[in-house]
Amino acid sequence: MSDILFDVRHLSKVFDLGRGVGAPRDQKRLLYAVEDMNFTMKKGETLGVVGESGSGKSTMGRCLVGLEKPTQGSITYRGQDLAKIPKQQQQKLRKDMQIVFQNPISSFNPSKTVGESLREVAAFHGLSKTQSNDRIGNLLGFVHLDSEVLQARSNVLSGGQLQRLAIVRALIPNPSFILADEPVSALDVSVQAQILRLFDNLKRELGVSTLFVSHDLTVVEHLCDRVIVMYLGSIVEMAPVRKLFDHPLHPYTQLLLASRPREFPGQVVQRFEPKGEITSAIGRAHDCRFHSRCPVSVNGVCDQEIPSLLEVSPGHWVACVLSDKRRDIGKSFRLTHGIWERKGMQVGA
Predict the structure, then answer these.
(1) Within this chain, do residues 21 and 86 fall inside the same structural domain, yes or no?
(2) Are 26 and 146 members of one domain?
(3) What's the distance, CA 135 to chain centroid?
């Protein structure tokens, strides 16, 4: 357990949306943004989190760094339960957990130079003026920026420059963990590659652990060590990156992978067409939330119970009755070329 950075158990985050129009006064609408999540994260690991918009990726990450208070469950960081840490120790812990946000343009105060903004952060974390200048100078070299950029304001800098500076800001207190919430989605493709190399260097050279939230599966495939796939607040699959991309087991994961654009002309891509509509995360789940879209859902099973997250092979966890070895129903299906088949009928040609 000494190599475990985060140990998350039964994490849930519920938002009270109030009562709907015309509903009784005491009837509340509860949005289950994150529901009963269990996972660990190792020191020095880059853990990817993928899923459609509204799947709860960012909310889960915000719970880890303390920006959202969990409704229930526990988050243990370096062996300490975050909910039980005394207030006087919380600021010290905040130094160890930093965030790189999605939009670099809104990350800096346009009325100040970026140098002033970075030095304020350094002063907040207790660095002297000399220490601040040395630390910022060294980090600018790490992200391949000249010191002249410190004199500029954010409105004259490019998105790529600002995201590099956001990484500098996150690294000033020398953290062990960074939450990267869609850090390249607002950047041009050529700039994305440069920023991703920086995140790779964070792991290789500085040993920083990163929770990398992204919609871009190609980015996650090349950057991350393991991947969590979320759907409407729950983990549906979790595996080392090569296992997940080479042998996806959950139908939703197959849907995500099949939706990727072709990497080169003429590439054959398996298409997996979902059925139905996305269900709502309002109200507690009593079934597999994906069953209404799943081409291989089983009536009387998928629509009546929540599938357990089970380890079907070392490190490969899946929440799907088709992968549940305890069920006879799984024998009626087989996985062929990454697509589930039932009774000789191929799904998603």
Answers:
(1) yes
(2) yes
(3) 29
User: Does any domain span residue 241?
Assistant: no
Does residue 256 share a domain with residue 211? no
State both tokens at 113.
């130079």
The answer to whether 320 touches 250, Cβ cutoff 8 Å, is yes
- What is each CA distance from 275 to 89, 255, 295, in whole angstroms? 50, 11, 6
Check: pTM over 0.85? Answer yes or no. yes
Residue 167 contacts residue 138 (beta carbons within 8 Å): no
Question: What number of H helices and E strands is found in the chain?
Answer: 9, 15
pLDDT tens sequence for the chain (349 residues):
579 999 999 999 999 887 666 556 666 788 899 999 999 999 999 999 999 888 999 999 999 998 999 999 999 999 889 988 887 787 778 889 999 988 888 888 889 999 999 999 999 998 999 999 999 999 999 999 999 999 999 889 988 899 999 999 999 999 999 999 998 887 778 788 888 999 999 999 999 999 999 988 989 999 999 999 999 999 999 999 999 999 888 988 988 888 776 665 665 555 556 666 677 788 777 888 888 888 777 777 888 888 889 998 899 999 988 776 545 544 455 555 455 455 444 433 3
Residue 265 lies in a domain: yes
- Picking from 152, 140, 146, 145, the residue whose alpha carbon sits closest to that of residue 116 is 152
CATH code for the domain of 208 = 3.40.50.300
| Count of other CB atoms within 10 angstroms of residue 16 | 10
Q: Which amino acid is at 216?
A: D
Give φ, ψ of 119 to 5 degrees: -70, -30
CB 253 within 8 A of CB 327: no
235 found inside a domain: no
- How far is Cα 80 from Cα 78, in angstroms, rounded to an integer? 6
71 with 42: CB under 8 angstroms? no
Q: Give the structural domain span for 292.
A: 248-346
**CA nearest neighbour of 165 among 97, 109, 223, 224:** 109
Total domains in the fold of the chain: 2
113/139 same-domain check: yes
Do residues 254 and 221 both lie within one domain?
Answer: no
| Structural domain contains residue 172 | yes
